[in-house]
Write a structure and sequence with these properties.
The complex is a heterodimer of chains A (312) and B (332). Chain A is an alpha/beta fold. Chain A contains ten helices and eight strands. Chain A folds into two domains: 261 residues, no CATH class; 38 residues, no CATH class. The radius of gyration of chain A is 20 Å and the shape is globular. Classes of the chains: A alpha/beta (312), B alpha+beta (332).
């Protein structure tokens, strides 16, 4: 698979069809791959494709506005590209999308914790992961270590692409919204308690925001000081404010790629909020984000029979 | 120099908890092993290479109140510094004082909050007997065994399952008297035994002069590629034991509120944004360049110490695998 992607990109660079390529390169440590933007075909040498590629590569597109770009896309990446097209951050003829059907990405932090020591080598087979450490070696089932968002992924095969490498995977590995349904059942106090528990871990590094392709504002509301919307300290109310406003900005714009949660160094369950909102959008507006570039996002449009019970 | 069993050592810490808050490495549900105030002394663990986060936040908290104000007056509340003991610090982390002290104490005006916290803390350094592949402390001439650092230092001998403990300062000498156990005459031998465990830690800089190397490359082509993957989150700066940038803000209303200082990160766009709206570091490229140069050029030039101790946290926590070692190698 890797050689096919490399070949295609080489050809695109040679034919001057692209000026830059957004790819994954082999990381400097065995547990990480490096998402990167490259401008020369020489950098394709270290291109890699394995279950460590959890970053959503569409995240790099808004910064490359105006350039011709080649990009490798998993199902979720392709949906984000569609969202960016809908919001005019990317033009269709500006990107060459190499679609890759994705069998799910590995939650490497969870694996590392279960393994107990530093991972010095990883080998991926069809459904097994072989993990090497300095003193032991173990084999794990890949399915046990998929990210939660991958376990419930509905669109593992890219929705939009110029070329598909690999065979199509028919998706939907499980019920998507169990956690959100549990959350709905809770009382307001219980919800708050749960959220405080999760969010009190937050160190406000904003890795969730910065790893998200839908978060591309020139100036984020947390960075604004004229006016100042919230304080920057460790007060739980401010942390709450940040996460809730971020989630509300995601309504109908979240493709559920899970990169916010994967990027979080404190393992906060950030997807809890966005999943609930995704469920609401699906039920109230019959809309799923990132499927059709010709249809505007749910909250950017109004139809006469739209849900409007909240207006009294 | 003394040697103690684990239960002796834990008892020693428990006794200290009468007059100090004891902060020690413990297994924290989702986060792995990290420093945290001890409530249950059985939960203390010494089975780790390094703690998830450095001890920096106990000396220089992420968010710290300076004073409160009300109706145009400062409601002065002299905040009493907490007496605390931090156990299990690694030598790389405690070498952050070369950077922090220079900025907070050695130059006028002295930062009293920082100084008070530092003076009221006892540092107990644990020698590394293992290391991670991301460790590169030897680059900065830091010895991973480091039994000369901190008020007290210990080495856990895997074979005899004993802690070899040594006092390095006056405070430490006073404290070690309270530790009831045998004297350790074979201390140096034990330390020597573990030296070879760390032969794999690289020295990336050797005796090259980074000031000279970087002064020719403060800008240029090499900077065009290294930052591309970076998404400008604050993980590397918040996990870094030496990053000390902060931002002072007023919280509350005009007539009533408080002044706080919060950690800031040079990775954020607001960090360098000026009142006019102009930002001299508008993109990732400038911000990342500043971070690297601050660590390996500016501080070296002015303070004669690196802004990095080689703990490797920025490498293992970076969501996009930006590797500071790779960047040093790019320029050398």
């Amino acid at each position: 698979m890797e050689s096919k992607i490399k070949e295609k990109f080489k050809q695109l660079f040679d034919e001057k069809k692209i000026e830059a390529a957004v790819i994954f390169q082999t990381g400097t440590i065995p547990t990480k791959n490096a998402p990167n933007v490259i401008f020369s075909k020489d950098d394709l040498e270290t291109l890699t494709w394995n279950p460590l590629n959890w970053n959503n590569l569409a995240n790099y597109l808004p910064n490359l506005l105006g350039k011709k770009i080649g990009i490798v896309a998993k199902g979720c990446d392709s949906r984000s590209i569609i969202l960016l097209m809908q919001e005019e951050k990317v033009k269709r003829d500006q990107v060459y999308i190499i679609g890759i059907p994705c069998s799910g990405m590995i939650n490497i932090k969870k694996l590392e914790k279960d393994f107990g020591e530093e991972i010095t080598g990883l080998e991926f087979n069809a459904d097994k992961i072989k993990v090497k450490g300095s003193s032991s070696e173990k084999e794990y089932n890949k399915d046990d270590y998929l990210f939660d968002s991958c376990k419930t992924c509905k669109y593992p095969t890219p929705v939009i692409y110029d070329e598909l490498i690999g065979s199509e995977i028919k998706g939907y590995r499980g019920e998507n919204y169990t956690e959100a349904i549990e959350f709905e059942k809770k009382s307001v106090e219980e919800r708050r308690k749960l959220m405080v528990e999760e969010l009190s871990k937050c160190i406000r590094c904003y890795a969730c925001r910065n790893s998200c392709p839908s978060c591309y504002c020139q100036e984020c509301f947390v960075d604004s000081n004229q006016p100042k919307w919230l304080e920057k300290g460790q007060n739980i109310d401010d942390i709450f404010f940040y996460h809730i406003v971020r989630a509300y900005h995601m309504v109908g714009r979240c493709v559920d790629c899970g990169s916010c949660q994967a990027a979080c160094p404190m393992d906060i369950n950030i997807l809890l909020l966005t999943k609930k909102l995704n469920k609401d959008v699906r039920e109230l507006y019959k809309y799923e984000c990132g499927l059709d570039e010709n249809k505007p996002p749910a909250l950017s449009t109004f139809e006469i029979n739209d849900y409007n019970k909240f207006i009294k | 120099m003394k040697k103690a069993t684990k239960s002796d050592f834990i008892k020693f810490l428990k006794d200290l908890s009468d007059s100090y808050e004891v902060i020690a490495p413990q297994k924290i549900a989702d986060e792995g092993i990290d420093l945290s105030p001890v409530t249950d002394f059985n939960k203390i663990t010494f089975d780790y290479v390094n703690t998830e986060r450095s001890f920096k936040r106990f000396i220089f908290p992420q968010s710290q109140e300076l004073f409160k104000f009300e109706n145009n007056k400062i409601v002065a509340e002299k905040i009493k510094p907490k007496k605390q003991v931090i156990v299990g610090i690694r030598n790389c982390d405690i070498n952050n004082f070369k950077v922090l002290d220079y900025n907070f104490i050695e130059k006028d005006p002295v930062d009293s909050l920082y100084k008070d916290a530092r003076d009221n803390t006892i540092f107990i350094v644990g020698a590394c007997i293992k290391n991670n592949s991301t460790c590169f402390c030897k680059t900065f001439k830091i010895n991973p065994l480091g039994v000369e650092s901190g008020d007290l230092s210990y080495l856990f001998d895997d074979e005899s399952k004993e802690f070899y403990i040594k006092a390095n300062t006056e405070k430490g000498t006073e404290l070690i008297k309270k530790l009831k156990c045998k004297a350790a005459s074979d201390f140096d031998e034990k330390v020597k035994k573990y030296e070879t465990n760390h032969d794999n830690i690289p020295d990336l800089i050797e005796d090259k002069d980074l000031v000279e190397i970087f002064s020719g490359q403060l800008d240029g082509d090499k900077w065009e590629t290294i930052f591309q993957g970076c998404v400008n989150c604050g993980i590397c700066t918040f996990y870094c034991p030496t990053c000390y940038c902060f931002d002072i803000e007023e919280e509350g209303k005009f007539w009533k509120g408080r002044r706080v200082r919060n950690w800031d990160s040079c990775m954020f766009s607001i960090y360098s944004k000026e009142t006019t709206g102009h930002n001299p570091r508008p993109t990732n490229r400038e911000r990342y360049r500043n971070r690297v140069l601050h660590k390996f050029y500016y501080q070296l030039k002015h303070n004669d110490s690196y802004g990095c101790v080689g703990c490797g946290r920025c490498i293992s926590n970076c969501p996009t695998n930006i590797d500071i070692r790779k960047i040093i190698k790019t320029f050398i």
